[in-house]
Design a protein that fits this description.
heterodimer, A: 101 residues, mainly alpha, 0% strand, elongated, B: 679 residues, 27 helices, 73% helix, 3% strand
Amino acid sequence: MDSLQTYLFISAILFSLGLYGVITRRNGIAVLMGVELILNSANINFIAFARFGGMNLSGQVFALFVIIMAAAEAAVALAIIINIFNNLQTVNIDEAQQLKL
Amino acid sequence: MLINYALAILFLPLLSFIILILAGKRLPRQGDWVAIGSVLITLVLSLAMFGSMLLSHDPGFSHEASIDWMDLGAFRIEMGFLIDNITIVMLLVVALISTMTHVFSIKYMEGDIRYSRYYAYLGLFTFSMNGIVLANNLFSLYICWELVGVSSYLLIGHWFEKDSAADASKKAFLTNRVGDIGLFIGVMLIFTALGTFNYGEIFQGVAQGDIAGTLLTLAGIGLFIGAIGKSAQFPLHIWLPDAMEGPTPVSALMHAATMVAAGVFLSVRLFPIFTPEALLFIAYVGGFTAIFAATIAITQNDIKKVLAYSTISQLGYMILAVGTGAYIAGFFHLVTHAMFKACLFYGSGSVIHAMHHALHKKHDHDIDPQDMRNMGGFKSKMPVTYWTMVVAALAISGVPLFSGFLSKDAILAGTLAFGTHHPQHFLLPIFGFGAALITAFYMFRLIFMTFHNEPKLPELYDDIHESPKEMTFPLVLLSTLSIFIFYTLPYFNPLSDHGWFMELVKAKDSMVPGNPSAYEIAEETHHSHTATIILSVLVAALGIFLSWSVYLKKRISADAWAEKLTPYYNLSLNKYFFDENYDKYLYQPLLRLAERISFIDWDLYDKYFINGFGHVTKWLSFLTGRTDYDGLDQTIVDGIGRSMSKAGSSLKEVQTGRLQNYMLFALFGVVIIVIFQSF
């Protein structure tokens, strides 16, 4: 069980789930959650390659950067969605079509 | 310096023409002072050139200058001046008569509705005539030759409201065209053979035999046919009498003194290239015209018609002189004739002017002011006109002490010498002396009918007055110039033409091998000189005596003789029915031919062939149109457009504006790439 393929397999499933969520969800928050899944699948890849690839700690460091970036992205994206909700009374991203009000 | 003078003489009248035609009516006095001023300057310049010619006294003087007008490699056309003594004398004649005409016209044309245009055309004529005189090649000569024809057309048709004037101008122009075709053929024959238009080079080419025999004869006759047209020789003489429809000063300038002399001038210029055969042709045309026109002049009653036929006859004399080799005598006669014939025309203009005013006062517009049968007894009323016309008539009749005697005598001597040398051509001297006899007769018939006897219309007689000074001045000047002394200075022998003219204007040798040299011709002429003097004085005296006894003393009744010779009288009165016969045998058949041809052209060729082509083309274009529109346009040109538009409208569905859709497409793309990668 303790092999690279396992981690990659899990990461691929996670990525696919995230992608599916991003593509299919109408709810903006759900889309953001899908993005979170994609990012984390990448993190798993980084760490797995770092662990089995015989590299030093750069994989882990990269994963940390990704977590930080994901936090920042979530903050900005959530702020946008709150603004959308304030203006349109919905978080359905299909409704947000206008470039200006 | 000479060239500058020549340039000024040539272009000043043209300048006056341009000014007058553009702004004539807005100038004070309708701008006649522009025309008179310009022509006066040319007269002064011509006199200056003439003076320098007399002072330098060089018979062989010749000066040539030219510029390239067109250079197309093998085909080079020059424009240039040839100034020799002939040119200078001719320039003076043109400038003098032209100035006199301008002055005479001030009163004669007073109040005319196209006064400024009249002066403009006179300027155009003077320009083109000077162009002919100055030209050093056949090409420039041809241009000016046509320009002279145009100005003649414009001036004959000056009163174009009258049908007769409009017809006469057309007749003059078209008849001249016939001659011009001959001139053109002659020029082109020479150009194709020698490759040059320049007189000097042509003479050289003829001397070297580059063109000879029949071709040279034909070229010479072609060139001479141009002279036949312009100088109104038989059989193209018919336009000149009709040209009298123009204003009388114009008749004096163009149809007596200068323009009609252009043909003689051309023959004189080109004398060295005429072959013996061509010269014989020229001599017979000239001699026949001289006597033929004289016999018509006897019976004419219109004062200007008499003078017109007299002009034709005198031009025939000049041509005869060229033909017999005494061509300098012909040129001499051209100069003296210009003076006394212009004087006679001004005199007739003065008489017509007086008649016109008298008739105008009586409000009579039916009586013809030009008919001599309505005149008579004007001698005491118009003394200046009378005496000047008598002097001119004596000159033209060849009476000693007058210029006409000298020149006519020179011609007759040349003809007589030619006749004695070639007895088979005995007719030529008979033509010459016969015409001299008839000339003396009809000129004095004119004088007696107009100025002597009882007035035919007494009611008009009191209103006949001498013409104003502007009109009598040219008369006096020109009749003075008809006295022998102006041509024989520094000698005073009235019986010999020996003088500055014969010393300065020398005959050139003919360039055609076999023709007698100028010296031989002069020698032969000299031998027959005495006989000629006696004969010509005799015939002139006989002519005047006959006229005197018929028309003044009435010893012989003209009517009785006309009765006796009715057929001949009618022939002469009707000008040998030339116009009628030309109409019957030339114009009408030509018109009928033209009708036939136009029938073939319009009704057959046009209708079936040209229009048939039209139908075929229409049908073809209909076919191609269908192919093009329905086939090509609809399927390929428009079809591509339409399919593009269809594809676009279906493809635009893809652009939903939904981010998630795009992402899905991107995913498909990635999947496809991965699939391709894995193979």
